[in-house]
Design goal:
- The chain has about 550 residues and is of the alpha/beta class.
- The chain is built from 17 helices and 23 strands.
- The longest helix has 21 residues, at about 5-25.
Length: about 550
Amino acid sequence: MSLSSPEKRQKMDQAAIIEAAMSAMTDTVNPALFDVTIICTTDDFQASYWMDRLSSGVCKSSSDGTSSNYPMVIAVSEDWSSSSGAGNGLGTLYAFQKACLVAKEKYGADLAHELMEGKISAALYHTAGKGTRLAPLPASENNNKPGVKLPVCHQLADGSYEPITVLEAVVRQTGIYASSRTGRLSVFWGDQIFVPTAPFKYTPTHHVDIMCTLEEEPPTEKVWKDKGLEKYGVIAVSGGGKGDAAQVEKVDHPTAMRMLKNLGDIARVGPSLGSFSVSAKMLQALCDEFSSELAAKDGKLDTDPHFWMPLTLPQDEYISLMSQKGVDEEESSSHHVRMAKMKDAFLAASPELGLFGSVDVGSNACWWDYGLLKLYIANNLKLSEEGDDADLLRRFFGVTDRTMNSEISGVTVDGSASAFSCKAKSGSVGADAVIAAVEAEDIQIGEGAIVVNCAAKKIVAGKGAVLYNLVSESDDGIVAEDGDVIVSVTDAEGSSMLLRSKTSICGGKAWKQVLDGNEMSFEEVHKQNRDADVSNIEKKRKELYKKASSSFGL
C-alpha cells in the first residue's frame, strides 16, 4: 500500500529531524552541550571521578584560551539522611543546591542567579542507585553505575582509545536540547539514549515541560488499549493553542478521561519519559516550598506523584490515584493542598508561562536503554546488526567500519561481527559478536558474544556470553560457556575477584542470592564496594590490563 501525501510529508519531516539531531550529536568540533552539567552520584569518590572525566572529555571546552567558566561540570553526591534516598524530586532540588555551592567555591559562579537571568542552560543527570537490574556489571565498576562501559570506543584527549561509558553517551545525546533551554534546569536519567523524530529545538511555553512520546491519533478508548497506555505514566495535552498538559499513571481510559477533565478537550496523549525541564522561577519556588525537607535532608518525594500530578490533577482525582499506591487519603489530601497553595501563589507571580506542558520526542523515536542487563546486551548487539535503527546507533557512536583501530589481521572475523580497539594474533570472532578494548594472543569469540575491556593470553567466549573488565596472565586465560556473564571486581589494592551470572538471570531478582561460582551475593558485593575510590581503582585496573597485555607481547 502506498503512503498518502500527509504520511509522505511526515516521513520526510521525521527524516530531516533525525538528520539534524544526528548531526548535532556527532559534531566533535562544536559539540552540543549544556553550559552546566551536574551529575548526581552515590558518593564523593564518584563525584570526583566524573568531574575529572567529563571536564577533560565529552564536556571539554572547544574554545581554548577563553576566561569563561563554561562549559562547567559539577558532580555531587546525594548524602541524604535515609538510605532509601531523597527520591528524584527532592533529589533534584538537593543536587542543584549542592551544585550551586560547589560552583561558588570552585569557580566563583552564582549558578542560581545566572540561570534566573537566562544567561546559562543547566542539565542534571541522576545516576545514583544500585543498578540491580544491570548486575553484575555495576559491581565491576565498584558501584559506579554510570561508568559501565559500552563495547565501542571513543578517542580521548591524549589520542588513545577506550570504551565510552553509558553516562558519556547520554550527555552527548541530550545536549541537543541545550540551545532551547537557557534559563532552565533540565533533568535526565543516566542510562537512556534516544534520537527524536519530533523537533528538538523549541521555545518553552510552560514553567515545567516533560518529555513524552505523543501518539498521532486522538486518545480514544481503542487507542488507549492498543497502545497499552494503562501500563504507563501518561502525559495528556489539551487541544487549542496553549498546549497545557497533565499527568496520570497506570489507569484505564475511562478513569484517565475523568481525572483529566480539567484539561478540557484532550488532543494527544503518550507515555512519559520522565525527563523534564523547569524554569529558574519554578526551580526556585520548589526549593523554597521544600526548604525544610532540604535543610533536614529528610523525606522522599518523586517528581511524578509528588510534584507534577498534584499540580495538574483535581484533589479528588489525585487522592484516588494515590490510594492505588497505598497512600492514605489524609496524607494525599494534605499534600495536594500544599501544592495547590504553592501553585496559586506561583502563577500569580509568574504568569508569563503556562504551568505544565510537554516536549514530544516523537512516537517513532529511536530508543536505546542500558539500564537492564538484557537491554544492555540487545542494544549493544545492534552494533553488528542491519537496519535503520542499527545504522543510527553506529553513526551516533562514530562507527564507520565493522573493524576500527584494531590489529587483528591474524583473526578470522565474521562479516557481521564488530571489533573496536582490539589486538590479537590469532583466533576467530563469530557472527554478530561485538568486542572492544580486547587484547589477547588468541581469541575464540562465539556468536552474539560481547567482550569489553579484557586482556588475557587466551579468551574464549561461548555463544551469547558477556565478558567484562577481565584480566588474566595465566596460560588458561579466560573461558566462558554459552550465556555466561563474567566480570571482575577490583579493589583499591589491585586484587580482583570474579563475579558470575547468566544472561537469563535478572540481577534484581537474584540480588540476594549467591549464584553458582560466586562466593558472595550481588548485594554483598555492593556493600563491599561502598565508598570505593573509583578513580584509584580504575588506575589500578589499567595497570593490571597493561601488565597482562605486555606479558604476552602485545
